[in-house]
From TrEMBL:
UniProt keyword Signal present: yes
GO biological process, one term: peptide transport
Descriptive protein name: Dipeptide-binding protein
Stored InterPro entries: Peptide/Ni-bd, SBP_5, SBP_5_dom
Gene that this sequence comes from: dppA_1
Domain Solute-binding protein family: 89-447
Species for this entry: Roseibium album
Classification lineage: Bacteria, Pseudomonadati, Pseudomonadota, Alphaproteobacteria, Hyphomicrobiales
Amino acid sequence: MFSSVLETALPNKKIKSVFTVSLSLVALAAMAFVIPVNRAQAADKTMRIAVPFGPKSSVPDPRARQNGWLSNRAGVSETLISLGYDMALQPRLAESFSNVSPTEWKLTLRPNVKFHDGSIMTAEDVRASFEKLDQEGHPAHNPRLSKLLGLDAITVEDPHTLVFKTKTPNSAFLWSLTEPSAAVMREGTDDLPLIGTGPFVFVTAETDKTYRTRKFADYWGGDPKLDAIVMDALSDSSVAALALQAGDVDLVTNYPEPDFAELKNKGEGQLFSNPTTRLFFFQVRTADGPLANESLRTAISLGLDRDTIVAASLNGVGGEVANGIFPTSMESWVNSGLSLKYDPEQAKAVLDQAGIKDTNGDGNRELEGVEVLLKIRSYEGRAALRPTLEITQAMLQQIGIRSEISMAEYDANNEALKAGEIQMHLQAWGTAPLGDPNYFPSTLVESGVGYNFSGYSNPELDDLLVKGRESFDDEVRKDYYDRIQEIINTDLPLIPVFHKTQVSVGNGKVDGYRIHPAETYLVTPDLTLAD
């Protein structure tokens, strides 16, 4: 499949794909990783959903690491505030919220919300849940979220009211409360290891494989229509597609774009699609190694034909070319004056001017007398990553930059980038999963933050991020974030490639499913299977 992708992208180049996958192997993988479901024997209404990533432990506390993304999507955990499909803030466990001062936020809780153990949620429960984020050794410990929230104190005024006080003014605070890791949880027990408030109760999880839930009849938002849900982690979207065809799953959330396009052209299948804020980009090691050279980073960006990548990797159904970190759908925050053009001749000129030349005529350029060899990795879980990696390798070779590409585990790639063992990591992030522009740059490119594996540092950008958080005037903030986007496009610690449209396919019976732009919501009480 990937060989044909490369031939489409670069018709005049004879390039053999190192990632060709036979259909027989995919079919075997599908049988190995999906547990068949006998619908006739099922006593209840259970939906099986194929998702690209699974739980990271057998009891994945939603507040730790990125566990909340799965449990929030599974309908197990909930946050105080959520994002609507228009990406606007809306009440969830908190029925109202207000800004009391630049550092104080008052929230009033929704009454009579029950935890999965039957107890009523109180303001004390909320405070206790958030305090665990800073408790080293607790399963909920999350330094990343703690930094994002920047809490100084939480004061309980009465059983339904509490005030969050931040260390510094933070205009993005309410938006940060929509982060799935900011879930309100009670301490687990042997019978209920994860006690949340959502429409479904956590049952069991198998690391990197399955996540099982059952309905919670006392859910504050109404009785769920399904009795149970099983999420199967199938990182290879082709395997997931075969599982759907075999009737082993009911819904594939991340369907292969080529297969989706074929179904669409034939007018077949239960198809779902919606633009998201997800960006496919390269995180670049700028602190050391060959890509500490800014001219080389500039040339790489100029050498990427993003239109061809989108056409070949996404088959015209999966996204749009990136001109910066934010998609055009983020009208309030995108810097519409930016562009990331394709100009291989200019790329070559930039390299020549920087002294990065092919001196021995072998087609590969040298930097300071040493042949440039970029080690680039990505990971499984999103169908477009592999072909994008392959096409990038071919395009870089056209401007004289040799590269080695490989797939590995996501966290291992981050550690390798941090250690300088690889120079680029192709990945896919939601750039505005909280609806506010602060999250993505402050998580990836601010000096010293946990996910800044580039080793990148720019004092001007750091200062702008602080100002963006401390200002409560959106017009003023817009100027700050416009400049932040401009700096990223110039320095290129991240090289944006394209913004993703999520495509999903159901078995024809899926009802109540809707793709959220932030991709942080999936299961609702209304999700069901038609009889």
